[in-house]
Amino acid sequence: MSAPFSWIRPDPRGIFVAPANAWIDPSHPADLALVTHGHADHARGGHGQTVATPETLAIMKLRYATCAGAVPVAYGETLRLGGGVDATFVPAGHVLGSAQILLEHAGERVVITGDYKRRPDPTCAPFEVTPCDIFITEATFGLPVFTHPPIADEISKLLARLAAQPDSCVLVGAYALGKAQRIIAELRTAGHADTIWLHGAMEAMCHLYEEHGVPLGDLRLVSDAPSKDALRGAIVIAPPSALNDRWSRRLPDPVTAMASGWMRVRGRARQRGVELPLVISDHADWGELTRTIEEVNPAETWITHGREEALLRWHELTQRRARALALVGREEEDD
């Protein structure tokens, strides 16, 4: 008889599921890849078969031209992989189409979360707690100092600054997949029905979200603005790299904002020249990480993608088993 959980192995290139010869979020081309979501530190092209939610596959087609070998799996649907391994995709609450992957084999249950958050988000399905034996969790914000404020408070700060400087615009740096669409949807929820202007790099992903049932309201490209004056008193959303780029010179006296969980760290805001830091994250904060582990109540937690030491220490203090993994991550998300 094989040792418990010998069928699933962490590797610097991803999680390997031996009986099925499959990989979870591999950083290299694989014959069979199960992908949790569309960010580039978890998804890539070049696989023989790519198993993911329909939304994630659409994102991968847009970003990486991944078409051949796509195998769509709906939330709650179980797929038999081979070697007696079943895979079920469960909402992760991170971005559109993001999923945890529940693997079941020989009576053992493993959940790979990918990235996740616990806060409500009008642009994606909410996280679902899934009991298991081994829980593989991210730890991007795995330090007690990281406590994300309510997003409504951050949106209120943004709108207040806009009202206080009507002759300027507020230029918000936000990641093109997930963060930008969430900010737009939250602005609509807060009653901001005006045109929101976009950098050209945002257009295709916003269209994809709308095609998948996420309404975003009146969006226009900055390049289509009839004049600089048309952008006064407006919100403009652009990739973080564009905040201090030549592109931003076409904007009327922009107030530079940045939407990221890292804006909790004042030094990061100063370093990037951000006037209006907005603490908005698509990852779980410290309290949500520890609460999730308590709710899932696994026999053992595997920790990856972030601040492993503090979360390991928390497990020790609460008499829980845990280990840190060393997976390759490109840290693409400017969260």
UniProtKB/TrEMBL annotation:
InterPro entries from the UniProt entry: MBL, Metallo-B-lactamas, RibonucZ/Hydroxyglut_hydro, Xnuc_lig_assoc
Domain Metallo-beta-lactamase: 11-175
Entry keywords, A to Z: Exonuclease, Hydrolase, Ligase, Nuclease
Name listed for the protein in its UniProt record: Ligase-associated DNA damage response exonuclease
SUPFAM superfamilies: Metallo-hydrolase/oxidoreductase
Enzyme Commission number(s): 3.1.-.-
Gene Ontology molecular function: exonuclease activity; ligase activity
